[in-house]
Design a protein that fits this description.
Strand content of chain A: 5-15%
Largest interface: A-B, 37 and 37 residues
Number of helices of chain B: 4
Radius of gyration of chain A: 19 Å
Order of helices and strands of chain B: HEEEEEEEEHEEEHEEEEEEEEEHE
Distance between the termini of chain A: 35 Å
Oligomer: heterodimer
Largest sheet of chain A: 3 strands, antiparallel
Helix content of chain A: 25-40%
Order of helices and strands of chain A: HHEEEEHHHHEHHEE
Shape of chain A: globular
Number of helices of chain A: 8
Strand content of chain B: 35-45%
Shape of chain B: flat
Radius of gyration of chain B: 26 Å
């Protein structure tokens, strides 16, 4: 975590600097000049409104709250696809596979594509994966949106097909856990095919994992059994306790996954979706 | 006179000395039987050379390590999530070390520096890590080995304590990762070695909590409620029903000595490990390095623990490995077979001459 914190620090510094400072460092080692930006339309993202509400996170918040209020917000009904991300890199050459800064994407970034602007075998309608947190954030900014917060994402994901909070329904929890317990198919199926939850949001469970805006402050450490301890360390004994629901194994899996991430990672089953403040 | 006086004095002195010494020895013996055995000071030997660990799938065990110095041992392991059979016609999505359940057997020597490379297959859905009970330090390595799908990591540890240790995944939620098959054994061979035997085998007991009842066909999802209630549908050796029976039975010849490295992954149950028709000549209880009992019928192996048992097979036959909590053996799968071939030894066991129907006495 220290390493990623440092990385974020460095990147935040770099990003806040005038772009001119960054340019030479990025361009110098490139054998060919950066390709020109193409004039590409921003793909429209279908969003739905989620009403304000509360949800119970797996761990208490930094301020010791066990219930979190979530303001109304808009969330994309499905994750961003390969085709949509292709439009992004056409319009933004610095985010192409061969050009993106190593500080912000590791090897393997868009590794399932055939080339910079060539999807190859990757199905256009499937969720884009192998994108770093930085790249996902850049896409969201380009699209005039943002990533959902972890609270927003979990709030949306706790909805079943019929209820805003479906977690009291054992069948709902079982279904989610069963979906997580399957290996990831290759290639991934198309986005938007999953059953809609009560808000009309699809694919939150079992298609791909998704970046959230504050994922780097997720609470589960690499060793799952240290969690309560780590909370107390990280939050200076701010009411550190264990999980709120020891039966919500699906939530443990999500929090565990987030705990293994670094912001520049490219993971074969990790994508993202867009969100916006309720206007 | 002076000379004989001197002799007498010398004799008295000698007697006192010897007596005192004997008394001392006696004292020492007395305290030996009551006090815990001394734990040797940890000394880290120099590390010479490098080798890649031979990893074997159950029931096979890597060859005995014959070198007499510490080396750097490279262990390469990949975590995968694979659909395989748990019983005939019953499949399950196993989370594995190395593609099989249990994971590979690792053998190193006391003092070795282990360079562990853990990768997680791109097709995995969830992150994994490894906690080796042979590791001294936070999380047994788990904290520094977390790896998301399509990534790799590495860490190093000294195998400072000899013994037979369980390893398992410890990513959240740890019970699920173990219930899905992520465990195996690492044997840290004592530097003075072990008594030689003719055959060594790797046996690991574990439970599976499937939605369907035992024997219900098709792909069976994990059932959290059954796991929490500690009511498995399957209790098996080496990852599936029948992994040690039929053509998969292990074998030996009459007169050979057999060593079983037995682990219990749990995640919940303690095993009452027994071989029908044999006594364990030696039991290295709880996977430690001392024989703590001889002539043992059944040895208890806790979840997350192990035992090493040695025995000589004296007569031919089929010897059945069981968890002697018997409904696990006969209704849930915890059965294995050791086939022993060779000459009969009627002086040890034979049928009597009075076989036949009972005749009513008049």
């Amino acid at each position: 975590m220290t390493r990623s914190a440092l990385l974020i620090g460095i990147v935040a510094f770099v990003m806040s600097s005038p772009i001119a400072l960054l340019q030479p460092a990025v361009e110098a080692p490139r054998p060919v000049a950066l390709a020109a930006a193409e004039d590409v339309a921003v793909p429209a993202a279908e969003m739905v409104r989620l009403d304000e509400g509360t949800y119970t996170p797996l761990y208490k918040t930094a301020t010791g709250d066990s219930v979190v209020s979530v303001a109304a917000f808009d969330l994309a009904v499905r994750p961003v696809t390969n085709a949509e991300f292709l439009a992004f890199v056409r319009a933004n050459p610095t985010w192409r596979r061969s050009a993106a800064a190593a500080l912000m994407v590791e090897d393997g970034y868009l590794g399932h594509w055939a080339g910079d602007v060539d999807l190859g075998e990757a199905p256009p309608a499937s969720p884009v994966v192998n994108v770093s947190w930085f790249a996902a954030r850049a896409y969201a900014a380009w699209a005039g949106a943002r990533l959902p917060t972890t609270d927003e994402w979990e709030y949306a994901a706790s909805a079943s097909a019929t209820q805003a909070d479906g977690r009291a329904d054992p069948a709902f929890v079982r279904t989610i856990l069963a979906r997580y317990s399957r290996p990831t198919p290759n290639p991934l199926p198309a986005a938007g095919q999953g059953e809609a939850n009560v808000w009309g949001v699809r694919d939150l469970h079992g298609l791909v994992w998704e970046w959230t805006s504050d994922v780097m402050s997720a609470l589960v450490t690499a060793d799952s059994r240290q969690s309560a301890d780590a909370n107390s360390r990280r939050f200076c004994a701010a009411g550190a306790v264990g999980a709120s629901d020891f039966h919500d194994y699906a939530a443990f899996l999500r929090y565990g996954f987030r705990g293994g991430l670094e912001a520049r990672f490219a993971v074969p089953n990790l994508g993202f979706r867009l969100a916006r403040d309720a206007s | 006179m002076t000379r004989s006086l001197a002799l007498v004095l010398a004799a008295i002195a000698l007697t006192v000395l010897v007596g005192f010494a004997a008394f001392n020895v006696g004292l020492a013996r007395t305290s030996d039987t009551n006090a815990a055995p001394e734990i040797a000071e940890i000394t880290l030997p120099d590390v010479t050379g490098v080798e890649t660990a031979v990893l074997t799938h159950a029931p096979n065990v890597p060859p005995v390590i014959t070198r007499d110095y510490a080396t750097r041992v490279v262990v390469n392991m990949e975590t995968t999530e694979v659909e395989k059979e748990l019983a005939d016609g019953v499949s399950y999505t196993f989370w594995t070390f190395g593609g099989d359940v249990p994971g590979p057997f690792i053998r190193v020597r006391e003092g070795d520096l282990v360079e562990f490379h853990l990768s997680n297959a791109a097709s995995s859905t969830v992150p994994h890590n490894i906690d080796l009970h042979a590791v001294t330090g936070t999380g047994g390595g788990a904290e520094i080995s977390m790896v998301v799908p399509g990534h790799a990591t590495s860490f190093e540890f000294r195998a400072i304590k000899p013994g037979l240790y369980v390893y398992h995944c410890a990513t959240a939620p740890v019970g699920l990762h173990v219930a899905n098959g992520m465990y195996g054994l690492i044997f840290v061979q004592p530097k003075e070695g072990m008594p030689a035997v003719d055959k060594e085998f790797y046996v690991m007991q574990s439970e599976f909590y499937t939605s369907g009842k035992m024997g219900e066909k098709g792909l069976q999802p994990f059932d959290l409620d059954k796991a929490v209630d500690e009511e498995p549908e399957y209790v098996v050796f080496n990852g599936r029903v029948g992994a040690l029976t039929g053509e998969n039975a292990i074998s030996a010849s009459v007169g050979q000595t057999v060593r079983l490295f037995v682990g219990n992954a749990g995640p919940n149950l303690t095993s009452s490990f027994h071989v029908i028709g044999e006594m364990f000549d030696h039991v290295y209880g709880e996977g430690g390095t001392r024989v703590n009992q001889v002539n043992v019928q059944t040895t208890s192996i806790p979840s997350g623990g192990s035992a090493i048992v040695d025995f000589k097979v004296d007569v031919p036959g089929r010897f059945t490995l069981v968890d002697h909590a018997l409904f696990r053996a006969f209704n849930k799968g915890a059965v294995g077979i050791l086939e022993v071939t060779g000459d009969e030894h009627p002086e040890i066991l034979r049928e009597g001459t009075s076989a036949g129907p009972v005749t009513a006495s008049r």
